[in-house]
Amino acid sequence: MQKFLRFNCEKDFVLQGVRKSRVLLCCSLLSVSLNVAGQTTSVTKVLEYVPAPGQFVNASLPKYEAGDTDESIRAKAESTMKAGSSFIGLGAYGGYVVVGFDKPIVNVPGEYDFKTAGNAYVNNAECGIIMVSQDKNGNGLPDDEWYELAGSEYNNPKTVHNYKITYYRPQYDIEIRKGETPDENYINNPASFRTETENNNIADVMWKDNLGNTGYVLRNTFHKQQSYYPMWIESDELTFSGSLLPSNAVQSGNIWQFPAYDWGYADNWSANESDEKIGMKIDWAVDKYGNPVRLTHIDFVKVYTALNQCVGAVGETSTEFKSVIDLHPDAQVSEDKSVVLDLSEAVLDESTKVSDFIFDTETKFFDFNDLFRFSHSATDWGGGSFSWDGFVCSKQQPDLNEPSDLYNPDGSVNTDVVSSWEYLPQNTYAAVTGAGVNGDNTPYIFGYWDSYSDQSIISFADGMSHKVNGVYVTNAAINYISMKYGDSYGKKFGGENGTDPDFLKLTAVGKNGDTETGSVDFYLADYRSDYSCDDYIVTDWSWMDLSSLGEVSSIEFSLSSSDNGDYGMNTPTYFCLDGLSVNPQASVPSAISESEKAVSWSVYPNPALNYIRIKGDEYKKADIYTLNGVLVRSVSASEQIYVGDLATGLYYIRITDDTYTSTLKFIKQ
């Protein structure tokens, strides 16, 4: 038997192809029909179809004809998928199709939402990864963010998540396109041109990937079309990226088998299998960093070949795709009743673009939207020296351009320059994004976590517990610069050779009163993968799903890092938030237990002009705060409290006795 190497690399991607009979090759063409009563394809349009090179490309699935263009091939694919009677081929790794529907596929929590049909059967899984997207901008095009459905192999350490591959049009095809006439033996007898040291001929499709590997989509004697490279595509290079699954090819004697993965992939199990094997849950969606996202529905599905392997006469693994079946065709998208943090009314210092109370020692919290309360603390150390922790608002736009003197003559980074760069005035309180979730010149929350005070807390101004959906997070500019380059205190993440398993982790702990409801971790930087292409520092706004915390009265944030010293973390302890979303709950205020319900205070008159009185049980103390959390008056129990000198507006009054606390609102006229 003649053998040839599939890869010039190591690890789990090394396969050797062994030539098999025509019978085995033809088995891969069996069409498995979907035969489930009452369920038909939900696909009504194909928006994009870009197969990678492969033995069925141009010859069929669909067939190329002279003069075909991107649009005509897309239309052929659409006609095939709308009919639901056959499948289309996606070619080798990365080849994809994007489909749409006449109505959204609704996320029904806890249930399978849709399933796909391909060409899989027992031990012949040619797995495709499934991506989903919402038409958030409403233009009917799949140009919003895509999310991967995290199948059973998503967290497999052999899976590569930021894989990239480029295919090159073969020389044979290029010569024909130039009007030349190359030797047809390159097509008719391709193996005769291959040796152990030169395992391709000029008609094979070469590829290179970002792991440093080079290989070929090899021709065989059964598919003799001019090229395995898509002939309607004008570019001589095709690049695809996504997640690469570990090989599923297993040799048993003279037979190659391709067993299915457990769940979560297209063309993985027979279309007649149970939902547990072929059903898909929208709740599996994750962003590009692997964090869960919250989607009420989806408008588009993308499927791409997720394996890069070529096995003997069977050839390259190529996902075949036939249909998407909506499992809740009558479901409607539910109304979103969540309340989202709105920072449009933030008051910022005109020169610094940061909250003017940042070093105000009297400000203990600040509120937005009469609901969201952010902790804040400042300390005056004397001599003009202040410190702070908790949260402020910011609109700073960072300077991330490398300084001209950043590198030493030997090419190493000058960490003193990095430290000066980090603390430029425009970087001190800046998100790496330079703006909030809503775009240019919008404010965001800038957080600083101090491990000694541990006071980065979000609570609710109404004293109630609410169900939190999540919040958008990103890095501060200082963190980004420190982790990317290294500074006088913190190391360059990954180390000098890029292999150190560094990380920066943001943790949110939910509490309902004093009871912890759960915790969620989000990696703002992660270099722990075996594959350097999977290392990242977050540089955009990314969703941190907090729904698992349930109903909470507060959320406590903290940071941890792989880089620590004698005095704690060496990595800067800043982070940024925006777009906090909650579902308000009609429940008992979190500060009041069942035994406290008998405690009743009220403020009158309300609105008030000069004095207010507290009606109800005896109390010990009353503190009056502005909406920004500035303490403006603190009094012991008295018959009346003077407020005549306060500015007109809304205030909080916090009333306490030996056991209980209650926060109320009043209006000063």
TrEMBL record:
Designated name of the protein: Putative secreted protein (Por secretion system target)
Coiled-coil positions: none
Residues spanning the membrane: none
Domain Secretion system C-terminal sorting: 603-667
